[in-house]
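Hypothesis: this fold can be encoded by more than one sequence.
Test: take the structure tokens below, design a sequence, compare later.
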């Protein structure tokens, strides 16, 4: 039996109702894990929203948003599906991002994007990789605890039988001269 996942429901609370009944009871833990991931994404979104509100209100920043996690060694590897949901994250990525394996798999890649990331860079990334090209540059990401980290990302489309099926990321620590070059984009 094939299952078609429909995520275009206008009512976000019921976005899984279109396909949930086709799963047998034995897969209820799968549905539960998806719903937990949505709750986690909502929690992170709420933290980002709180951060922006505090800036607009002139009340400073939320604790940890100013605190940098120093990512200074190792290579991070991440794979996502076409919609940007993480399908694989190596142990170094999980360590640097602060997420457990259970929490990171299935999250949207945008969940770890720091609110300071300039929109024009985000648009450039998606435009480049969705046109099946490689994007390379410095990104500011946010950990589960709210701290941020810098990384040099190389994002490539994943092609199978000529069809785009997702994206792969190879990341290393950002070098100080690279951060100096992009500092004006974040001010």
């Amino acid at each position: 039996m094939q299952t078609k996942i429909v995520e275009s429901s206008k009512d976000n609370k019921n976005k899984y109702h279109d396909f949930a009944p086709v799963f047998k009871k034995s897969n209820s833990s799968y549905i539960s894990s998806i719903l937990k991931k949505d709750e986690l994404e909502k929690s992170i979104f709420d933290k980002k929203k709180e951060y922006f509100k505090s800036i607009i209100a002139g009340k400073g920043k939320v604790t940890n948003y100013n605190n940098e996690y120093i990512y200074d060694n190792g290579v991070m590897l991440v794979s996502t599906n076409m919609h940007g949901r993480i399908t694989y994250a190596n142990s170094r990525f999980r360590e640097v991002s602060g997420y457990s394996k259970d929490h990171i798999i299935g999250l949207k890649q945008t969940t770890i994007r720091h609110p300071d990331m300039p929109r024009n860079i985000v648009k450039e990334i998606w435009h480049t990789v969705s046109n099946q090209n490689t994007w390379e540059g410095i990104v500011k990401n946010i950990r589960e605890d709210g701290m941020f980290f810098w990384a040099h990302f190389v994002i490539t489309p994943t092609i199978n039988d000529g069809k785009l099926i997702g994206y792969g990321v190879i990341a290393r620590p950002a070098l100080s001269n690279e951060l100096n070059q992009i500092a004006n984009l974040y001010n």
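The two ends are 52 Å apart (CA to CA). The mean pLDDT is 78.
Hypothesis status: open.
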